[in-house]
Amino acid sequence: MSVMKLFCHQIILSIMFSVFAWAQMPHEVLLLVNQQSQDSLKVANSFLAARQVPRRNVVYLDIPESAYGGSATITPEQFTELIWAPANAVAKERGIDQQILAWVYSVDFPIRVKTDSYDRKQMSVGGMTFMRNKMPGLSLVEEGKYLSKLFAGPNQRIKLNLNSMSLGMQKKGLGMDAKVPPEAAWLQRGLGERMPLPSMMLGYTGENGNDVQTVIDSLVRGQRSDHRGMRSGINFVVSDDVRSKCREYQYYPAVNELKNRGITATVTTNFPAGAENVMGILMGAEKVDPSQVKSFWPGAMAEHLTSWSAEFQKPQTKLTAWIEAGATGSAGAVVEPYSNPNKFPSARFYAHYAAGCSMLESFYQSIACPLQSLLLGDPMAKPYALPLSVNILGADNIENDFTYLANAACQVQNAQFLYSFLLDGKEIREVSEDNSVHIRLLRLADGYHELRAVARIKHMVEFNASFDKPIMVNKMGRSVTIRPNLARLGKHEHGIKVQIGGQQMPQKIRLVSGERVLDEQIYDADAELVLDELMVGEGPNQVRAIAIYADGMEVSSPPVSFGITFSTDS
């Protein structure tokens, strides 16, 4: 049996009027879900509810267990067929491909791509994603000599510290008037079409990985961390181990950089056993016991630079041990990386984090060669981001073209705000100083729509917030709503009926979760749509009904939110 908790529309609308503040922006993320895995669905549902990624940005893929079980290794051809091609096709079909700056994988995906028979020349799934499915010279991968354009230094090739930046700024650039060092000339024009595609995995639940609840708990910690970063509790642990020594040169400069931001970090020979509210640990060791830390503060990142922390069939402590102990994020290599600091987060991870970047942005600015990396945790955690607020002024119900206004505020005096707008998850007005958007009804269907305003501060780290406003369009008097009473049809199935408004009746009705079709029926007064819980998975969910008319208009109902919990009872 299962338990499905249905919430009333009043509660739904109050949630959807909420303000959400971000560093990396939810509409810039494509969330990949393995629809063959209940664990993948459950984790993705939790992330969606916490991070307000538009449901248009969710792509459901078919990844067989043979691809994510065992060593979780696939061929380059399988990566293309199972992941790269279908995910990009969906994003392009939905018209969101140009706004996507990062991918987020739910659990039960492969982690390694067999790019060569020699394992030290193999790449991670994150590495192939980063390279947009193009393999560089594999000797560069093995030796850690490939240099990421997102890396902000320092290493042998970039001998200075570049400023922290949001992904959007990396893509569009600082402008030709910006003064940048010659080694980073691309920052003026931006990377544009040369922008790589960074990604993270929400968790790893395969062999010797975490369980699903541990992954979800880490995402809860990520959400709780926003704007609440500790001003202390960052530990750089040193020892005689070569794994430690290869990165030690980074520690004292990072301590000074953090001090300038009012954050205390410590270089120590002592592992912080028994310590409370730990915000970060960087160290190098074959084996470590993260459970000795008494407590991690929400948003903490910990990592222990070793050979096989993301090879789950080999010895040495795994990166998942940090997540189990309470960290929000960690990193590891999916093959033998040698003691090469270019393949691991530098100590400047915490400097980017402290500047307000998200966890994902901080990882990719601190890893010079991320092509063998597995990055786990909440990619959108932002403990040190500046909080903003934004709202939308305008009508709830419209019958004619209408102009909406957004207003942003923050604690920084004389902040310059930029605005963009999305309608039903798709960007309709690019970033500008104009805080208004004109909604034209010519091509807009009757029924429910969602207008999102995104406000950001004009800054290299684009502190931002979003606000979702439900809008009901009434050009032709058509509407559809989901009736509150559900009929149990089976162990995991529920019957849903709709109420049609207006004189004209639709030809068909459809049940959707985001853009995913769950059921479709020929319409009559007794027509019943079937909600199969196994299709949407456990956790927070949301569905809409769509009425399809003879002239092709598809009218959406307001969404209905509910939670699903699968019972262990037979």
Q: Would you spell out the secondary-structure blueprint of this structure?
A:
Blueprint: E1 2-6, H1 9-16, E2 19-22, E3 29-34, H2 38-51, E4 58-61, H3 65-68, E5 73-74, H4 76-93, E6 102-105, E7 112-113, E8 123-124, H5 125-130, H6 138-143, H7 167-172, H8 186-189, E9 199-201, H9 212-225, E10 234-237, H10 242-245, H11 251-259, E11 265-268, E12 278-282, E13 296-303, H12 320-325, E14 329-333, H13 349-354, H14 359-366, E15 373-377, E16 388-393, E17 397-398, E18 402-410, E19 417-423, E20 426-432, E21 436-439, E22 447-457, E23 464-473, E24 479-482, E25 487-488, E26 493-496, E27 498-501, E28 508-513, E29 516-522, E30 529-532, H15 533-536, E31 539-548, E32 554-556, E33 560-566
Parallel strand pairs: 3-4, 3-6, 5-7, 6-9, 10-11, 10-12, 12-13, 17-23
Antiparallel strand pairs: 1-33, 2-23, 7-8, 14-15, 16-18, 18-21, 19-20, 19-22, 22-23, 24-27, 25-26, 26-30, 28-29, 28-31, 31-32, 31-33
Helix pairs in contact: 2-9
Protein name: TIGR03790 family protein
Keywords for this structure?
single chain; 570 residues; alpha/beta; Immunoglobulin-like; 6-stranded antiparallel beta sheet; 15 helices; TIGR03790 family protein
Shape: globular
End-to-end separation in angstroms reads: 6 Å
Helix/strand/pairing category: alpha/beta
Tally of DSSP β-strands: 33
Total domain count? 3
In terms of per-residue confidence, which ranges show pLDDT below 50 for 5 or more consecutive residues?
6-19
Q: Calculate the mean pLDDT score and round it.
A: 95
How much strand? 25-35%
Give the C-alpha Rg: 24 Å
Total helix count? 15
Largest sheet: 6 strands, antiparallel
Helix content range:
10-25%
